[in-house]
């Protein structure tokens, strides 16, 4: 195996050819699809009389539009019902595995593929969804793609892509108590900017990353796209292999041991060349919250909203827009900001470890009056496991609503929506204007433990106050 980064190795191993345009035709090992970006792609295939080239390499689930209260069919929202019916029909016609609601395997696409062992080191993975970068946590090269590219992958199992540069982002040292992977990625994005990763794959490394569980690494890689990087990854290691072992679609028995040898060979070499290297100290990272309308508009929870003058002249218009939209201004502390709604869930932070951390905060306390607080598991499996541990009881006793799995209020393509100018404390990944279902709604991103504490106190609070 040649010297280089994992990105270079996986890219080269999946290169079919270099196209006349200079782009690479890249073979895609695993194609994940969901109800939002696949219907038109299937229609385009039908128009051209094409079939799906490798149905066994495509896996479908339904996540964005599923209601989280009653999931009885037909769904109350006729558009949602139409979308699930289309996916049921397209997957059946094309012989594609579909994890439907109630199958025990349904959930947010970026939660279910890893938990079932579909996501593996050294793979190329594509999905018509920007947060496909999540799967990089396993040392896979995973891209979000658009609908016409979903069509291309269905028809040819390949994509035409420009090769990315690789930036190594090291986080060294130990995270302080109360500081989570979510804070690490918000801190990275705050520092490098929401567009800072354009043209790059991010390789996350350093002792703080190596110490992270797979679920923490997924949170980190999930938001690479919010930092402008097309994908992000962590080199696979023993933590990766221990997570994968025994999962349904992971190699079994001897094949697993052989796979580990192979996966090890794909790790970035110690003398690999990077296009850029940036080093962070874990001790500099505090519980971080966003105050604005872009994920890089984030500060330590005990800081105050920055002044216009601290931004470059190109950035100032967006900062001004953020002050106005959020109705928050420079010098204002985030601590104590009143909130209306709390959302714990999403492909960033809707996994078991996230619910456990939030439940630790919720246990024996109660949601402040007037606050609506949702806990939405990332998948049916997460929900089942959480219930087996009694987390649902802790949340319900504390006044949280325990909902069915799905994307829910992360994007509000289902009935879970903010109303009017409501402000939410949310464990999701985007604080864009109108993101959570109300055109004028406001979103503060933070870790699940911080969301839970915000629900209890009715205002933005510092989780370190509980330590
Ligand atoms: C609906 C889908 C295309 C979209 C995405 O690509 O990310 C969604 O998942 C999101 O988070 O905004
Ligand atoms: S949970 Fe949110 S970010 Fe993730 S796929 Fe669903 S809508 Fe997109």
From TrEMBL:
Entry EC number(s): 4.2.1.33
Q: In which pathway does it act?
A: Amino-acid biosynthesis; L-leucine biosynthesis; L-leucine from 3-methyl-2-oxobutanoate: step 2/4
One GO BP annotation of this record:
L-leucine biosynthetic process
Q: Which UniProt keywords apply?
A: 4Fe-4S, Amino-acid biosynthesis, Branched-chain amino acid biosynthesis, Iron, Iron-sulfur, Leucine biosynthesis, Lyase, Metal-binding
Taxonomy, top ranks, is: Bacteria, Bacillati, Cyanobacteriota, Adonisia, Adonisia turfae
Tell me the ranges covered by the Aconitase/3-isopropylmalate dehydratase large subunit alpha/beta/alpha domain, including all copies.
8-458
Q: Which cofactor does it need?
A: [4Fe-4S] cluster
Q: Which GO terms describe its molecular function?
A: 3-isopropylmalate dehydratase activity; 4 iron, 4 sulfur cluster binding; metal ion binding
> Which family does the record assign?
Belongs to the aconitase/IPM isomerase family. LeuC type 1 subfamily.
Official protein name in the record: 3-isopropylmalate dehydratase large subunit
Q: How is the cofactor bound?
A: Binds 1 [4Fe-4S] cluster per subunit.
Function per UniProt: Catalyzes the isomerization between 2-isopropylmalate and 3-isopropylmalate, via the formation of 2-isopropylmaleate.
Its gene is leuC
Q: Which InterPro entries match?
A: 3-IsopropMal_deHydase_lsu, Acnase/IPM_dHydase_lsu_aba_1/3, Acoase/IPM_deHydtase_lsu_aba, Aconitase_4Fe-4S_BS, Aconitase_4Fe-4S_dom, IPM_dehydratase_rel_enz, IPMI_cat
Q: How does it assemble?
A: Heterodimer of LeuC and LeuD.
């Amino acid at each position: 195996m040649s010297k280089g980064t994992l990105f270079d190795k996986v890219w080269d191993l999946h290169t079919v050819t270099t196209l006349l345009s200079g782009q690479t035709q890249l073979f895609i090992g695993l194609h994940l699809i969901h109800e939002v970006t696949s219907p038109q792609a299937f229609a385009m295939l039908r128009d051209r009389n094409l079939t799906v080239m490798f149905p066994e390499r495509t896996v479908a689930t339904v996540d964005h539009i599923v209601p989280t209260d009653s999931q009885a069919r037909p769904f109350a929202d006729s558009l949602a019902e139409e979308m699930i019916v289309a996916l049921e029909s397209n997957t059946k016609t094309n012989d594609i595995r579909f994890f439907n609601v109630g199958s025990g395997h349904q959930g947010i696409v970026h939660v279910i593929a890893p938990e079932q062992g579909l996501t593996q080191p050294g793979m190329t993975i594509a999905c018509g969804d920007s947060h496909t970068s999540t799967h990089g946590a396993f040392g896979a090269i995973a891209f979000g793609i658009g609908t016409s590219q979903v069509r291309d992958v269905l028809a040819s199992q390949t994509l035409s892509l420009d090769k990315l540069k690789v930036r190594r982002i090291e986080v060294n040292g130990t995270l302080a108590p109360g500081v989570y992977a979510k804070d690490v990625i918000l801190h990275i994005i705050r520092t490098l900017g929401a567009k800072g990763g354009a043209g790059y794959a991010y390789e996350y490394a350093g002792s703080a990353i190596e110490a992270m569980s797979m679920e923490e690494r997924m949170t980190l890689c999930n938001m690479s796209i919010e930092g402008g990087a097309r994908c992000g990854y962590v080199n696979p290691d023993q933590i990766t292999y221990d997570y994968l072992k025994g999962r349904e679609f992971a190699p079994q028995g001897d094949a697993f041991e052989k796979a580990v040898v192979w996966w090890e060979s794909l790790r970035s070499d110690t003398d690999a060349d990077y296009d850029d290297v940036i080093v962070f100290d874990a001790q500099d990272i505090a519980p971080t919250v966003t105050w604005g309308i872009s994920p890089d508009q984030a500060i330590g929870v005990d800081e105050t909203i920055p002044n216009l003058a601290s931004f470059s002249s190109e950035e100032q218009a967006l900062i001004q827009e953020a002050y106005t939209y959020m109705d928050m201004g420079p010098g204002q502390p985030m601590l104590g900001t009143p909130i209306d709604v709390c959302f714990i869930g999403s492909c960033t932070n809707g996994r078991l470890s996230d619910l456990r951390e939030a439940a630790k905060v919720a246990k024996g306390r109660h949601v402040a009056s007037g606050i609506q607080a949702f806990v939405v598991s990332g998948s049916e499996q997460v929900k089942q496991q959480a219930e087996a541990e009694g987390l649902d009881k802790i949340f319900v006793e504390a006044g949280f609503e325990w909902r069915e799995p799905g994307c829910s209020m992360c994007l509000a393509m289902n009935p879970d929506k903010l109303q009017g100018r409501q402000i939410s404390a949310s464990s999701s990944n985007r604080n864009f204007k109108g993101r959570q279902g109300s055109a004028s709604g406001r979103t503060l991103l933070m870790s699940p433990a911080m969301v839970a504490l915000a629900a209890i106190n009715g205002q933005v609070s510092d989780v370190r106050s509980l330590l």
